[in-house]
Amino acid sequence: MHHILGIVNLDEVQDLKDVGKLGHKSHDFSHKIIEKVAKRYQSAVDDQELILSAPSYWRVETRPKGHKWHYDGCKEENGELVDNHMPWCRIGTSALLSNPDSFTGGELKFLIDDQEVIVHNHYLSGVMYSAGKHDKPLKHKVEPHKGDRTVLLMFFATKPVSKDQLKGN
Fold first, then answer.
1. What is the pLDDT of residues 6-39, one digit of tens each?
2. Beta bridge partners of residue 158, listed in sequence order
3. Over the stretch 39-52, which tens digit does the pLDDT of each residue have?
4. 35 partner at 20 to 30 Å CA-CA among 45, 97, 121, 157?
5. Is 37 within a domain?
6. Which residue segment(s) compose the domain that 89 sits in?
7. Do residues 123 and 57 lie in contact, with contact meaning Cβ atoms separated by under 8 Å?
8. Cβ contacts of residue 57 below 8 Å, gap of 6+?
9. What is the CATH number of the domain that holds 82?
10. Does 169 reside within a domain?
11. Would you say residue 168 lies in a domain?
12. Number of domains making up the chain
Protein backbone atom coordinates (compact mmCIF):
# COMPACT_ATOMS: atom_id res chain seq x y z
CA MET A 1 0.00 0.00 0.00
CA HIS A 2 1.29 3.42 -0.95
CA HIS A 3 -0.04 6.68 0.49
CA ILE A 4 0.21 9.84 -1.66
CA LEU A 5 -0.54 12.97 0.35
CA GLY A 6 -2.32 15.87 -1.32
CA ILE A 7 -3.29 14.07 -4.53
CA VAL A 8 -6.17 16.55 -4.96
CA ASN A 9 -6.79 19.98 -3.46
CA LEU A 10 -9.91 21.65 -2.09
CA ASP A 11 -10.46 23.62 -5.31
CA GLU A 12 -10.65 20.35 -7.28
CA VAL A 13 -13.02 18.49 -4.94
CA GLN A 14 -16.28 20.14 -6.04
CA ASP A 15 -15.39 19.71 -9.71
CA LEU A 16 -14.76 16.00 -9.13
CA LYS A 17 -18.01 15.62 -7.18
CA ASP A 18 -19.90 17.36 -10.00
CA VAL A 19 -18.30 15.13 -12.64
CA GLY A 20 -19.13 12.13 -10.48
CA LYS A 21 -22.83 12.94 -10.18
CA LEU A 22 -23.43 10.89 -13.31
CA GLY A 23 -22.58 7.90 -11.13
CA HIS A 24 -21.05 5.75 -13.84
CA LYS A 25 -17.55 4.57 -14.52
CA SER A 26 -15.45 6.31 -17.13
CA HIS A 27 -12.59 5.04 -19.27
CA ASP A 28 -11.79 8.62 -20.31
CA PHE A 29 -8.81 9.96 -18.36
CA SER A 30 -8.61 13.24 -20.30
CA HIS A 31 -10.43 15.39 -17.70
CA LYS A 32 -7.69 17.71 -16.39
CA ILE A 33 -8.02 16.70 -12.73
CA ILE A 34 -8.42 12.98 -13.49
CA GLU A 35 -5.35 13.10 -15.74
CA LYS A 36 -3.34 14.92 -13.03
CA VAL A 37 -4.32 12.36 -10.40
CA ALA A 38 -3.50 9.42 -12.70
CA LYS A 39 -0.07 10.94 -13.41
CA ARG A 40 0.57 11.25 -9.67
CA TYR A 41 -0.24 7.58 -9.24
CA GLN A 42 2.02 6.72 -12.20
CA SER A 43 4.90 8.60 -10.55
CA ALA A 44 4.65 6.20 -7.60
CA VAL A 45 5.00 3.09 -9.80
CA ASP A 46 8.48 2.39 -11.09
CA ASP A 47 8.09 -0.93 -12.88
CA GLN A 48 4.75 -0.70 -14.70
CA GLU A 49 2.95 1.72 -16.99
CA LEU A 50 -0.63 2.53 -16.04
CA ILE A 51 -3.07 2.19 -18.94
CA LEU A 52 -5.23 5.32 -19.12
CA SER A 53 -8.01 3.86 -21.27
CA ALA A 54 -10.28 0.81 -21.20
CA PRO A 55 -10.29 -1.48 -19.38
CA SER A 56 -8.92 0.92 -16.71
CA TYR A 57 -11.56 3.21 -15.32
CA TRP A 58 -12.38 5.76 -12.64
CA ARG A 59 -15.53 6.75 -10.81
CA VAL A 60 -16.64 9.10 -8.05
CA GLU A 61 -18.57 7.08 -5.49
CA THR A 62 -20.80 7.65 -2.48
CA ARG A 63 -21.84 4.31 -1.02
CA PRO A 64 -23.38 4.47 2.49
CA LYS A 65 -23.46 0.68 2.85
CA GLY A 66 -19.67 0.48 2.31
CA HIS A 67 -17.92 -2.52 0.79
CA LYS A 68 -17.34 -5.92 2.39
CA TRP A 69 -13.87 -7.50 2.41
CA HIS A 70 -12.73 -7.98 -1.18
CA TYR A 71 -9.92 -7.80 -3.71
CA ASP A 72 -10.27 -5.62 -6.82
CA GLY A 73 -8.61 -7.78 -9.48
CA CYS A 74 -9.43 -11.25 -8.16
CA LYS A 75 -11.48 -13.18 -5.63
CA GLU A 76 -10.86 -15.95 -3.18
CA GLU A 77 -12.34 -19.42 -3.79
CA ASN A 78 -11.39 -22.42 -1.67
CA GLY A 79 -8.32 -20.62 -0.37
CA GLU A 80 -7.07 -19.78 -3.89
CA LEU A 81 -7.02 -16.44 -5.72
CA VAL A 82 -8.92 -16.71 -9.00
CA ASP A 83 -10.12 -14.27 -11.66
CA ASN A 84 -13.13 -12.10 -10.92
CA HIS A 85 -14.99 -9.58 -13.10
CA MET A 86 -11.85 -7.35 -13.25
CA PRO A 87 -8.90 -9.75 -13.75
CA TRP A 88 -7.09 -7.01 -15.71
CA CYS A 89 -6.93 -4.77 -12.61
CA ARG A 90 -3.38 -4.65 -11.27
CA ILE A 91 -3.62 -1.47 -9.15
CA GLY A 92 -6.54 -0.03 -7.22
CA THR A 93 -6.72 3.46 -5.72
CA SER A 94 -8.93 5.55 -3.47
CA ALA A 95 -8.88 9.27 -2.63
CA LEU A 96 -11.27 10.66 -0.02
CA LEU A 97 -12.98 13.81 -1.32
CA SER A 98 -15.14 14.52 1.75
CA ASN A 99 -13.96 16.17 4.93
CA PRO A 100 -13.93 13.48 7.65
CA ASP A 101 -16.03 15.82 9.83
CA SER A 102 -18.93 15.43 7.34
CA PHE A 103 -19.56 11.72 8.02
CA THR A 104 -19.25 8.99 10.64
CA GLY A 105 -17.95 5.50 9.92
CA GLY A 106 -16.61 4.84 6.43
CA GLU A 107 -13.15 3.69 7.52
CA LEU A 108 -10.99 2.24 4.75
CA LYS A 109 -9.33 -0.90 6.08
CA PHE A 110 -6.76 -3.28 4.65
CA LEU A 111 -5.88 -6.77 5.80
CA ILE A 112 -2.10 -6.88 6.12
CA ASP A 113 -0.41 -9.92 7.68
CA ASP A 114 -3.82 -10.97 9.08
CA GLN A 115 -4.17 -7.62 10.87
CA GLU A 116 -6.80 -4.98 10.10
CA VAL A 117 -5.07 -1.69 9.28
CA ILE A 118 -7.16 1.49 9.15
CA VAL A 119 -6.02 4.12 6.66
CA HIS A 120 -5.61 7.49 8.33
CA ASN A 121 -4.99 10.85 6.58
CA HIS A 122 -7.00 9.71 3.57
CA TYR A 123 -8.67 13.12 3.03
CA LEU A 124 -7.43 14.72 -0.23
CA SER A 125 -4.82 11.96 -0.39
CA GLY A 126 -4.49 8.85 -2.49
CA VAL A 127 -4.11 5.28 -1.38
CA MET A 128 -2.73 2.92 -4.02
CA TYR A 129 -2.54 -0.85 -3.57
CA SER A 130 -1.85 -4.02 -5.52
CA ALA A 131 -4.96 -5.70 -6.88
CA GLY A 132 -3.99 -8.50 -9.30
CA LYS A 133 -3.96 -12.14 -8.22
CA HIS A 134 -0.25 -12.49 -9.07
CA ASP A 135 0.73 -9.19 -7.41
CA LYS A 136 0.16 -9.99 -3.73
CA PRO A 137 -3.20 -8.19 -3.79
CA LEU A 138 -4.44 -6.46 -0.68
CA LYS A 139 -7.83 -7.40 0.69
CA HIS A 140 -9.74 -4.33 1.84
CA LYS A 141 -13.11 -3.03 2.92
CA VAL A 142 -14.97 0.19 3.63
CA GLU A 143 -17.16 0.38 6.70
CA PRO A 144 -20.73 1.67 6.29
CA HIS A 145 -21.12 5.40 6.91
CA LYS A 146 -23.64 8.12 7.65
CA GLY A 147 -23.30 11.58 6.15
CA ASP A 148 -21.35 12.80 3.12
CA ARG A 149 -18.49 10.42 2.22
CA THR A 150 -17.37 10.65 -1.39
CA VAL A 151 -14.27 9.05 -2.91
CA LEU A 152 -12.48 9.06 -6.24
CA LEU A 153 -11.72 5.46 -7.20
CA MET A 154 -9.38 4.43 -10.01
CA PHE A 155 -8.67 0.92 -11.21
CA PHE A 156 -5.70 0.41 -13.50
CA ALA A 157 -4.55 -2.22 -15.95
CA THR A 158 -0.81 -1.95 -16.56
CA LYS A 159 1.82 -2.56 -19.18
CA PRO A 160 4.89 -4.18 -17.66
CA VAL A 161 7.96 -2.20 -18.61
CA SER A 162 11.51 -2.39 -17.35
CA LYS A 163 13.02 0.30 -15.17
CA ASP A 164 15.49 0.98 -17.99
CA GLN A 165 12.61 1.64 -20.40
CA LEU A 166 11.08 4.12 -17.93
CA LYS A 167 14.41 5.94 -17.70
CA GLY A 168 14.61 6.11 -21.47
CA ASN A 169 17.71 3.87 -21.74
1. 999 999 999 999 988 777 799 999 999 999 999 9
2. 50
3. 999 999 988 899 99
4. 121
5. yes
6. 2-163
7. no
8. 25, 26, 27, 154, 155
9. 2.60.120.620
10. no
11. no
12. 1
